[in-house]
Specification:
4-stranded antiparallel beta sheet, 2 domains, alpha+beta, 10 helices, 4-stranded mixed beta sheet, Immunoglobulin-like, 8 strands, 266 residues
Length: 266
């Protein structure tokens, strides 16, 4: 009889413990901050319960906790932080966790096997540098010839035609056929278009997108269209050819005003 009562008591205590634990389990809502801004992709791990989650783009997260659990927050560029769940945290509607930036400072760095001292002039004098092998160092006759674009190669082929022994004794008809069919004219237009595109790309590489957006008032998705708008200006080629960044920027500022008015961006 007493054995049955003892088993019943153990069952009651175990059941009561499970109920108590489930009763105190809470889904903790929180937000992870750095300099008052939410941090995304922070790993949040409940090391006591073996549960984990990741913060969203605004730094918010949600994870199940109980009294006394330990949360570990870790992310690249930030110091790890642990948090023990207390009664006040469980009672709060949302918990705010602030992380500190992690700066990896090295006291001393030794670069081997070259044993560099940090003095650039002395290190360059001591280092043995192999000869750089290029077309110019080898003295090849085509070392400084600018490579042609694909459209330029096609135009040259259409105008001259592939070389053959027969060209020495007869008139090549391939260029004549291309001229009559209009292929040569089409290729000349393609070469001009490609050269214009290269000029435009050169200007795009001069300035970051922030210059177009903040200085010129051009939406980021309209920068390509704005550059095409600038291409048709007869002054565009000559000003870009000067490689003077200030002159080019002044032209872009002038064209941006007209572009914004025409596209109702004012």
């Amino acid at each position: 009889m007493w054995k049955n009562n003892f088993l019943l008591l153990c069952f009651f205590l175990a059941f009561h413990t499970l109920i108590a634990q489930s009763y105190f389990i809470k889904s903790l809502e929180g937000k992870i901050l750095f300099n008052s801004k939410g941090i995304p992709d922070v790993h949040v791990m409940n090391t006591s319960a073996g549960k984990a989650t990741i913060s969203d783009q605004e730094g918010r997260f949600s994870i199940d906790v109980t009294m006394g659990d330990t949360l570990l927050f870790s992310a690249v560029q930030y110091r790890r932080r642990s948090l023990v769940i207390s009664a006040s945290i469980l009672e709060s509607k949302i918990a705010y966790i602030t992380l500190e930036e992690f700066v990896n400072e090295l006291d001393e760095v030794v670069v081997r096997p070259y044993n560099l001292s940090g003095d650039l002039i002395r290190d360059m004098q001591q280092m043995k540098i192999d000869r750089v092998v290029t077309a110019s160092t080898l003295g090849l006759p085509n070392a400084y010839v600018k490579p042609m674009m694909q459209s330029e190669r096609l135009l040259r082929e259409a105008s001259i035609g592939p070389f053959s022994i027969g060209m020495l004794t007869s008139i090549p008809f391939n260029p004549l056929i291309n001229a009559i069919s209009g292929r040569t004219k089409m290729l000349k237009k393609r070469v001009a278009r490609d050269k214009k595109y290269l000029l435009t790309q050169r200007v795009r590489n001069y300035y970051p997108d922030s210059i177009f957006v903040k200085r010129l008032g051009i939406p980021e998705e309209s920068i390509a269209d704005f550059m095409y708008y600038c291409e048709v200006d007869e002054k565009f080629d000559s000003i870009v050819a000067t490689d003077d960044h200030m002159k080019i920027l002044n032209l872009l500022v002038l064209k941006s005003k007209a572009y914004r008015i025409n596209n109702y961006l004012e």
